[in-house]
Every structure is written in structure tokens, then in C-alpha cells.
């Protein structure tokens, strides 16, 4: 059944793992670079560095946040490690392009990544022109999703009305605060259908077919 999104005129999208399939392998390369960095900063063996990385992600919502708090890491130094990452795994998706183009209202990226990474990924996907803004981690004052502060920051920056907003994410826990605010929540990814979280209203393996068949607000 197609989702009824006739009440939506603001569309929030996570970036990594949401606007491209997690199965493409790009996120694996991101995690590898991140583990390299944690290994270098902490001096731990790789397996232990990986555990620390995941612990910071679980505790703070973002590995970088833990590195900043516990190791005094400069976020610009951290983000720079991704700026030469190969984008070969990412491909244009004409179906997704067409599905995004039909959405009424404004489209925003809401990401825990930095602006340069988001710019590179969107350019590679051929989707950059479709979004009104990229709300990145620096814009949020380095308060990552799923913190309430991150949602307050994007809400203030873009005068977001939650009742008319849909948020698309590949991380279920990042949808919880959106649901509390009154946003429509959509979990995206290969394991989305397995989620039983009450705060997830819609689930889809792939973003394009979901958007292409959704019922939308008619143009004024």
C-alpha cells in the first residue's frame, strides 16, 4: 500500500545509508577510515580501536563526539580523512531522482557528517540540486542525532513544523526524537521491515519505490 503523505511539505533526509543503498559498500570504507583514525589517536590495537569506535557511537550517537570529549580531537582533522575517499561505489539512481523531484515543498539533508562529505556524496549521486540545504554536524554545534539538541538546532534554523515534516533515516534510534516531536518517520534499509519500534511509522527497503508511490499533497 502507498503511504499517505498528503500532509507533508518538508522532507528531511539522512544522507549515508539512506540516499544510497547500504549494500553498495561505501559505508564499509567510511568505517575502515574511522577505525584507522581511532587506532592512531588511541594507540590501541585495531580490534580494540574498533570497539572504542562503536562504544562512542553507541554512547554519543557519533564516534567523533566521543573522540572530541575524551581525546580532544579537532573535528576538522577527523573529517578530513574522508575527503579523498573513493566514491566509485556510489551510482546515479534515475528512479530516486524522479521520486525526489515529485515531492512538494522543501527538501533538506540532516546528517551527522560534515558539509564537504555531504557535498561530495550528493554531487556523485547527482542529487545536490534537489535539496534546499544541508544541515551538517557543524551547523548543529557538533550535537549529533539522535540528541534533542540536534533536532532543536535544525528546527530553529529552518522553522520546521513537525506535523508537516517527514524524516527518512537508516538508523531507527535517530527516528525516536523525530516521532516525539510529531514528525512522520520512515525507516530505510535492508533491515527496516524487521523493526518493531512503535515510533517508526513507515518502513521500506529502498527509498525510491516508497517515494514514487506515496500519496502527496497536490500543488496549489
Tell me the structural class. Answer: alpha/beta
Look at the structure and name the CATH superfamily of the largest domain. Answer: HAD superfamily/HAD-like
What is the topology, as strand order, of the major beta sheet? 4-3-2-5-6-7
Tell me about the largest β-sheet: 6 strands, parallel
Total count of strands? 8
Which range does the strand content fall in?
5-15%
Name of the CATH architecture of the largest domain: 3-Layer(aba) Sandwich
Percent helix: 40-55%
Number of domains: 2
Count of discrete alpha- or pi-helical segments spanning 4 or more residues: 9
- The shape, in one word, is globular
Estimate the mean pLDDT confidence.
96
Give the C-level CATH assignment of the largest domain: Alpha Beta
**SSE order, one letter for each helix or strand:** EEHHHHHEHEHEHEEHE
The CATH topology of the largest domain is what?
Rossmann fold
CA-atom Rg in angstroms: 17 Å
What does this entry look like structurally?
This protein is an alpha/beta fold and 220 residues long. It folds into 2 domains: 4-21 and 92-216, HAD superfamily/HAD-like (Rossmann fold); 26-80, no CATH class. The chain has helices spanning 26-42, 46-60, 63-71, 75-80, 94-101, 115-125, 148-158, 176-181, 207-213, and strands spanning 4-5, 10-13, 106-110, 133-135, 165-169, 184-188, 202-204, 215-216. The chain has a 6-stranded parallel beta sheet with strand order 4-3-2-5-6-7. It has a two-stranded parallel ribbon with strand order 1-8. Helix 1 (26-42) crosses helix 2 (46-60), helix 2 (46-60) packs across helix 3 (63-71) and helix 5 (94-101) runs parallel beside helix 9 (207-213). 34% of the residues are buried. The mean pLDDT is 96.
Amino acid at each position: 500500500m502507498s503511504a499517505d503523505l498528503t500532509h507533508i511539505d518538508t522532507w528531511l533526509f539522512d544522507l549515508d545509508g539512506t540516499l544510497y543503498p547500504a549494500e553498495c559498500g561505501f559505508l564499509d570504507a567510511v568505517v575502515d577510515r574511522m577505525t584507522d583514525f581511532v587506532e592512531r589517536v588511541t594507540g590501541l590495537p585495531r580490534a580494540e580501536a574498533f570497539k572504542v569506535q562503536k562504544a562512542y557511537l553507541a554512547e554519543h550517537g557519533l564516534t567523533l563526539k566521543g573522540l572530541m570529549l575524551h581525546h580532544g580531537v579537532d573535528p576538522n582533522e577527523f573529517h578530513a580523512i574522508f575527503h579523498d575517499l573513493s566514491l566509485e561505489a556510489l551510482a546515479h539512481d534515475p528512479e530516486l531522482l524522479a521520486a525526489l523531484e515529485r515531492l512538494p515543498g522543501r527538501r533538506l539533508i540532516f546528517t551527522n557528517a560534515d558539509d564537504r562529505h555531504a557535498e561530495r556524496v550528493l554531487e556523485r549521486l547527482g542529487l545536490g540540486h534537489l535539496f534546499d540545504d544541508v544541515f551538517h554536524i557543524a551547523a548543529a554545534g557538533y550535537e549529533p542525532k539522535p540528541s534533542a539538541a540536534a533536532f532543536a538546532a535544525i528546527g530553529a534554523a529552518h522553522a520546521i513544523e513537525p506535523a508537516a515534516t517527514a524524516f527518512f533515516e537508516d538508523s531507527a534510534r535517530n527516528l525516536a526524537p523525530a516521532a516525539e516531536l510529531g514528525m512522520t518517520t520512515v525507516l530505510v534499509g535492508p533491515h527496516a521491515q524487521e523493526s518493531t519500534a512503535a515510533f517508526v511509522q513507515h518502513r521500506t527497503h529502498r527509498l525510491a519505490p516508497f517515494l514514487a508511490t506515496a500519496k502527496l499533497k497536490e500543488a496549489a
